[in-house]
Design brief:
Blueprint (H helix, E strand, L loop, with lengths): L9 H9 L7 H11 L4 E5 L5 H14 L11 E4 L3 H14 L7 E4 L6 H8 L4 E4 L1 H9 L10 E5 L1 H6 L3 H9 L6 E6 L4 H6 L8 E5 L9 E7 L5 H8 L8 E4 L3 H13 L4 E4 L5 H13 L4 E4 L1 H4 L9 E4 L6 H8 L9 E7 L4 H11 L4 E3 L66
Parallel strand pairs: 1-6, 1-7, 2-4, 2-5, 3-4, 5-6, 8-13, 8-14, 9-11, 9-12, 10-11, 12-13
Helix pairs in contact: 2-3, 3-4, 6-8
């Protein structure tokens, strides 16, 4: 199904075509007609399948169809859990609306509030906000949402997990009751689903794929390793040049900093992303990771929500996630837009109970692997050979292309530090999957 069959406004369709995309993803094909018809919607789909465009495209189409003399003001409010996700939504909204006269702004903490106050006061058409800063500014009577027509709660499960439900309730109470409310999430428990009755009217429930099931194009592997050898094992695996763009998850902020220091000391260019980093530091880390200036990005769960980077070859769960939903979100950072990717999880003896719960949650067992040539009997942390200098070796943890469920393998072998992004698999069609 081409995009032109979805009923999008001509200028929006032009922007989509200029971006080089022709076919909508399944969630876009299912959601766009429902939103254009005016329905409230609960959209559940695996991360990386295109939820952002699934709501921005029809909303912009409906705004563009309104008469020129219609009341102006903030007509769209998108609420997201993290500033990274808010910036991602803003970027895609601007791309979609490039030929339209709409204004877009973000509202979140960690940066100066004066530009955000001006955006709220001026009646910016589309506001994309995190709950904390938005509620603070609304409490000081900044912003007029009397003309609001669309409310979007993106990554709703994560917002509720992060304790934002009271803030969201306070925000919603100050919005017009007559509005279209859209709720999107990668995972949605029955308990959270029940809460949507507070915010929506007779919503359509749309589910793409099996609930809580990670993307089918991601190869999932478990490495059982003593806790004190996790750092050495990560260094050992990074000698494989196929691991050329790696996102590493740490449970704690200080742990992320410690991992990054160890990698840097061994010649691996690394950046960190967590809530103790300033907004400028976080933006630079993402920019360097996207450009290939750094090979590894070490992040915590909260900071990583909304990371949208093409070509991530591997996600490594250095610390096993505390919640099964976090595992689904973490590994969804690779295998995006129907590309292939690997998700590697380090499991210590203390993690076995959580691993069993995860496998029940996703409805499948995860393959166990051992790293070829790694000394599992070492008494303490080992400094693995630096990845700088010499040609990295390819290790057995990487499945061969013929074994991968998602199709042909990613990039060709790279030398040195592997800072180049992997090549796109042959024959892979560009999709709106990361939008």
């Amino acid at each position: 199904m081409p995009f032109r069959t979805l009923g999008l406004e001509a200028r929006i369709l032009k922007a989509v075509q200029e971006a080089g995309y022709t076919e909508p993803t399944p969630i876009q094909a299912a959601a766009v007609p429902l939103i254009l018809a005016g329905h409230d919607l609960i959209g559940i789909a695996q991360t990386g399948t295109g939820k952002t465009a699934a709501f921005t495209l029809p909303i912009l189409t409906r705004l563009a169809a309104q008469p020129a003399g219609s009341p102006r003001g903030t007509r769209v409010l998108v609420v997201a859990p993290t500033r990274e996700l808010a910036l991602q939504i803003e970027e895609h909204t601007r791309i979609h609306a490039r030929h339209l006269p709409f204004t877009v702004a973000t509202v979140f903490g960690g940066v100066g509030e004066q530009p955000q106050i001006r955006a709220l006061r001026s009646g910016t058409d589309v506001i994309i906000a995190c709950p904390g800063r938005l509620l603070d500014l609304m409490g000081r009577r900044h912003g007029n949402f009397s003309s609001l027509q669309f409310l979007v709660l993106d990554e709703a499960d994560r917002m509720l997990d992060m304790g934002f439900l009271p803030s969201i309730r306070q925000i919603v109470r100050q919005l017009p009751a007559k509005r279209q409310t859209l709720l999107f999430s990668a995972t949605l428990s029955k308990e959270i689903e029940a809460l949507t009755h507070e915010f929506q009217r007779s919503p359509e429930l749309m589910q793409i794929g099996r609930r809580s099931n990670p993307a089918e194009t991601v190869t999932q592997l478990i490495y059982e390793v003593p806790k004190h050898l996790k750092g050495a094992l990560l260094l050992h695996l990074l000698r494989d040049s196929h691991m050329d763009m790696v996102l590493v998850f740490s449970r704690m902020k200080h742990g992320a900093d410690r991992i990054a220091r160890q990698l840097e000391q061994n010649g691996i260019r690394t950046a960190t992303l967590h809530s103790n980093r300033s907004q400028n530091q976080r933006l630079k880390a993402l920019k360097d990771f996207k450009s290939g200036a750094v090979r590894v990005l070490v992040a915590t769960d909260i900071a990583a929500r909304g990371i949208d980077v093409d070509g991530i070859s591997h996600v490594v769960n250095y610390d096993f996630p505390m919640h099964s939903e976090d595992y689904v979100h973490r590994i969804g950072r690779t295998g995006r837009a129907r590309a292939v990717g690997d998700a590697i999880s380090f499991v210590t003896p203390e993690d076995h109970g959580d691993l069993r719960l995860l496998e029940r949650f996703i409805g499948r067992g995860i393959v166990r692997k051992r790293a070829e040539g790694f000394n599992y009997a070492a008494a303490g942390p080992a400094r693995a050979e630096s990845s700088r200098g010499g040609r990295p070796q390819q290790h057995a943890h990487r499945l061969q292309p013929s074994q991968r469920r998602g199709g042909p393998g990613g990039g060709a072998q790279q030398g040195g530090q592997g800072g180049q992004k992997a090549a796109r698999p042959q024959g892979q069609r560009r999709q709106f999957g990361r939008w």
